[in-house]
Amino acid sequence: MMETLEEVELCFPQLLNTSCKRPKRSHFEIIMSYTILSSITVLTVTLNLLVIISISHFKQLHTPTNLLLLSLAVSDFFVGLLMFFQIMLIDGCWYLGDLLCVLYLCLGYIITSTSVGNMVLICADRYVAICHPLHYSTKVTQKRVQVCVSLCWIFSVIFQILVLKDNFEQPGSAISCTGECVAVSNNITELAHLVFFFIGPVTVIIVLYMRVFVVAVSQARAMRSHIVAVTLQGSVKVNVKKSEIKAARTLGVVVVVFLICLCPYYIVVLLAPDTLLNASSGLNPVIYAFFYPWFRKCLKLIVTLEILRPDSCEVNIL
Fold it and tell me: What is the set of domains in the chain, with CATH numbers?
């Protein structure tokens, strides 16, 4: 009876003295956890893959703003893939060894920090589009956005590898028992994470979007007050402004949802660094579906397999 109890409670029953113990959970809790996390994982991977295919395939969507959305979708897609490992940790045991544990943690931190960087770039893009519309086409070019996105990913990779360098050199040095997956950290690295990937970016995002919304509201009032006297040529300009404001509003929703999800995420990360889920990853594509007509059109073309036609990339999406 004692042997059976130990086999149930220990991650590695053969290592009686060094194995971690499984947390005691009811069968119902385990089943519900597996079901909910698996559903979120499949939805996150599938929806973000649809965004990646849509923006990559259709030429009309090859714009600087959509390139930023593509980068965000790629990071969110990898968050979904990493959730498979999180599902495995439901029973409180890590079975893949110390080196894979470090890789898992490193990838989680890289993807999360890249998502934060993407959000800052998206806010900067909307700031220029709304606050300096006449200079947008010259300041925000496809090449410059590509460089910024590349630097965002490169900086995240280099920073996280340097932070976790000791863990790569001595995998498993932070664990207290076999079956645990944690990283060595200190106050300096935790402070750096907090400043570079939470306090700093969130401050920049809030300041930029406050400015964007102030300008957007003033533009909307100006358009309403002069709408009667607008000529045909002027109405085209008004529609352009309206589209920019609508894009800012849509991305504003994405940013707000991201911040709502990011704040508790960082609180949890600071208290329990092995938790790497970011809830906004699965919500972003849902927001696109509600606010972006082009995304709904792309979904229809993908689901009906019309995307497989040779000339489908030239289809009018907008």
Answer: 28-314 (1.20.1070.10)
